[in-house]
Amino acid sequence: MQPTHLPLTLVLIALTLGSPAIRAEGEDETAWNTVLKEKLFPGKTIAEDQDTIAITAPYRAEDPALVPIQVTSRFPQSQDRYIRNITLVIDNNPVPFSASFDFTPASGRADIATRMRFNAYTHIRAIAETNDGKLHMAKAFVKASGGCSAPIGTDLEAAMARMGKMKFKFDGDKATLSQPNAVQLLVSHPNITGLQMDQISRMVKPAHFVNQVKVSFDGQPVLTARTDIAISADPNFRFYFVPDRAGELKAEITDNLGGQFVSTQAVAP
């Protein structure tokens, strides 16, 4: 049998696609495949598909310290089938683990949107765990750099003065009973990464960031999150919940220095 000779153009394409040097900076997935996957999900099988969740992120971010990220579930939450957790990983950040969000059937939808810091060109991954224990991943590539070390700004004193203030914001005027309702939690907190320089003192400020968020409705958990330095200053979380009556939304946050803050808001469908 005579050997098959590929056209030169096909050979060049294959070599180009296979060469890490030709890929966009940060697009190589070696860190995930060789270190992060096993460190964060030891011994687990992760299916990369679009059947469970999708992730939306800008390919080229305007501000690396305020990159909008949205994770959208492909099915509603129910007692029989639901997403119990979504973990966000930014491969090339100083701390790749970025956030972990716990949901319940009462969430209505396991969707989450927030703003994040990107320190280098990198993939961001959303790994969803469904109630059957299986893991599913969606990913996006973002061109942004310097977000974790971006200057704090000149108004740190004012930011510290309003730290801990929170507000719930609904898409409509009132919540709708027995339906998933979109709501935003706005948190005032400088979320200092420990890599940023104060523009006035020129000193690197110690890390001071929100590391836990709990949202409940009349005592029942709606959203629980563990977060790290990738979450932007003044964290903003958009999520869903399903009220079955009038009640009270409650947000409780803590930060890595022991700060604790609580806010409540009446919900009158």
What fraction strand? 35-45%
Q: How much helical structure, as a percent, in the residues?
A: 10-25%
Beta strand count: 15
End-to-end distance: 76 Å
Q: What is the residue-averaged pLDDT?
A: 90
Describe the largest sheet.
Answer: 9 strands, mixed
Gross morphology? globular
Characterization of this structure:
It is a single chain. 10% of the residues lie in helices and 38% in strands. The chain is mainly beta. Strand 11 and strand 12 form a beta hairpin.
Give a nutshell description of this structure:
This protein is mainly β. It is built from three helices and 15 strands. It starts with 7 loop residues before the first helix and ends with a strand.
List the defining traits of the structure above.
269 residues, nine-stranded mixed beta sheet, three-stranded antiparallel beta sheet, mainly beta, 3 helices, disordered N terminus, single chain, 10% helix
Secondary structure: elements and pairs:
Layout: H1 8-18, H2 30-40, E1 46-48, E2 53-56, E3 67-73, E4 83-90, E5 97-102, E6 112-116, E7 122-130, E8 135-142, H3 156-161, E9 166-170, E10 181-187, E11 210-217, E12 220-227, E13 236-241, E14 247-255, E15 260-267
Parallel strand pairs: 1-8
Antiparallel strand pairs: 2-3, 3-6, 4-5, 4-7, 5-12, 7-8, 9-10, 10-13, 11-12, 11-14, 14-15
